[in-house]
User: Fold this.
Amino acid sequence: MCRIGALKSRHYLHPSKALLLMQSQQKGHDNSGFAMVMQDLGGRFADYKKLPTLSLACTDKGLEITRELLRATGFRRVQEWQPEVNPIPGLDIQALANYAFQTFDYPESYRHATDREKEDLLTDTRLALRAALEPGEEGFVYSFWPDVITLKEIGDPRAIGTYFNLWQEDEEFTAKLITAQCRQNTNYEIVRYAAHPFFMQGYTALANGENTFYQKNKEFQSNLHRGYIGFESDSQCFLYTLHYLHRELGWPLSTYKHVITPLPFEDAVKRPDHEQLLVMRQSLAHLEINGPNTIIGVLPDNTLFTCCDAKKLRPVVVGRDADTVAISSEVCGINEVLPERDWEADIYPNEREIVIINDTLEVQRWNQ
Amino acid sequence: MEPVKINDLACNDLPWKIAYDPERCTLCGSCIAACTFDAIGPRMERRRMIYSDSETPDPKTLFSARPVIDQQNVLKNYCRGCGVCERVCPNSAISALRNPDSRFQVVHQCATGTAPKRGGRNNLEVQSRTLDTLRVGRISQMTDPSLDAQRHTFDCLAPLGRILPAKSLPLQLNAEGQLTQGGSTPPVRWIYPVIIGDMSIGALSWRMWEAIAMAVAYLNEECGLPVRMCSGEGGMPVRLLKSRHLKYMILQIASGHFGWNRIIQAMPHMVEDPAGVLIKIGQGAKPGDGGLLMAAKVAEHIQAIRGVPKTDLLSPPNHQGLYSIEESVQKMFLSFNAAFKFRVPVAIKVAASATSVSVFNNLVRDPYNIVGGFFLDGIDGGTGAAHDISLDHTGHPSVSKLRDCYLAAVAQGRQGQIPLWAAGGLGKTGNLAADAFKMICLGANGVFSGKLILQMAGCLGNDLGRCNACNTGLCPAGITTQEPVLARRLDPERVAENIVNYFLGMDMDLRKLMAPIGNSALPVGRSDCLVSTDKAVADRLQVQHVC
Assistant:
């Protein structure tokens, strides 16, 4: 079972807060891994918000392959940070040799390129890197995008925190938006790529649950975009659908819920926009999800949202204080990070709702 | 002593033999009156009895004449094994027994120069069914909860109509960032995933057809199940064409175009659009063969509806206007779409064949987006009339072909754009919900069924050669006859009630299958929830093999 969480704040937060958020929920996950995506970065990455940062875990050979491929593509490295690690004997972690967070400038030929062209280059480069690192499992590339860092590892989240010094708060490794999940033991193979949050072109998604329409989603998505690959976890489908609707089709976030958990026909026909709801449902019937799920997502403008399946089979709770909003599978996680908040203002989203937290931390509840 | 006349027809040449017990028979005549085929009749038998009436043996002979019931040894009136005689006999004195040594096929052809014809079913492959080797095997357990078939809500509807890919939808963002619809999209009806298959008002008695129509109206208006029924080729009563109930009907056009003169004339007076138009290209029971309505069934009202004299009505094996598939798309589909001003989905029905995927690919790639459904009919489907050889030796099962078509769509990222509807012996074991559900998991959006509806009405035929006389117009159940006396054997209201009850039960059964896999919407293409105990089937259909 997964437990998921997200923190969005006016101030830069250290990942120790995310660990804290997740730790009290450990009965709900199985301590088999930790993964997080940090967006809107502070500290040593604060000055490079427009330039892409590569998040990589690899062998020495993988590091070499990556350097070669990026050099050949024309990327110029402007910063590199490798977290200092604590390889204390007995830590429950399957660590790789290298964890690199490298920031690059775009190739010279992209000086006058549009944002879209640059974004496509980043995605194609990430996909090429992934393919190049796959033989012999030389490494894992999780994200290559401006202002985004991803860390995933197999093991006990507490040990992973210790290994990467994440318990030690500092001001160099921070972000205003952190999404995290504590589990690696998916229903399928234990693969680092299977751990959510998943990230693609500014979109992040993580989920607590089971997507019983996984096969339908996967078969359909495989033909929609070259970047929709992997499918090591059924939760990747949530990211791809979000990306497809919002970026590829240009539809607003409000349509996400209508596509993944459409209204029952008898309710939809009563709505003034029923024709629109129907054409969306029929064209994207294979993106519908089923089974128990809660999803947390992030849009490229750092809007954070959460919603759940049509029967509210997996709950989620949103809590806040003046400066920080926390989303968590269980309220005990929020109690840890925001103990002084007004508990009565916590939101337990219902099955037909999306809760949205925009960049000014305004919390909106949209009824489907 | 009788001479042996080996070339005369004897009852042991025929497929069924009458078993008759004169000791139990009261000669009430019920069986003879009820037999629609005149396969039995009264006959006088000469009986010889030896008796003795003295104290010492003194054999004497007594001859007497006794009336008995006997089988007719005539090709025209051979017993079909329908068993009506047994049903009506108050003393259980008579029944029909299958003759395993029948020489019927040979003697019929030798005597008449024509091969036998029959209505009904494929009788050769009745041993095992692919669908019965499949089970719903992915049951929600600890990772995800099962749903509750009684308590939860389920969306059990399927589309009929062309569905555009999302990128082609006429949706734009307005200034407020809301999505608005700027143009029209092809018509799509969301209907119950089981369509009552295309049985014409000529093939069925008017009372049977009316019973189905009543059941459909009741299911829609009283039970909330949007079940649709297809007219079959041969039109329908003008009164119905002009009524609001037309919206529950799918109008079929086949190569004979029977009934369409009246449909076109009724168009200006229609108060509702029909649910759809189905262009029948082929039929699973007799692929490559056209429709066949024997003259015996072309009653006066059929002549009126179809505008024909009393004669054998043969639809050509092919549509006259269909020169190529491209032309078919442009001419037939476009003209039928245009006829109803692009408000009514137009679908195609073909017989499953080795070429089905090619046909499907051509249609799914059509640039006009006007093919609103691909109805695939398999070898186990029924027919009102066909030559034995077509029924027994042509055809293609629909299960693997349905799967092939779905996977062809998946490979192109076009799944769902042309809804797939499958048929061909579905519900043969009595449980249509199970068959429908498995076909849906293999990629069908829905299924259609005809023969099972006849079973609900009391059809006495089966797939083991019993009755199968739909072509004769002598249906002993009053279902496929135009003889007023026979048709009155059928109580339309009882039949309608049976159909309604069956559908209500089936609807609950569908939920009972959706609930354990944790799905509240139809699991179209969810082959992951099926398993097969047969390795060959599992490999062919790409589902998990279990043992």
Summary: Chain B has two domains: 11-114, 133-161+189-514+522-545. The first strand of chain B starts at residue 16 and ends at 20. Chain B has 16 helices and 23 strands.
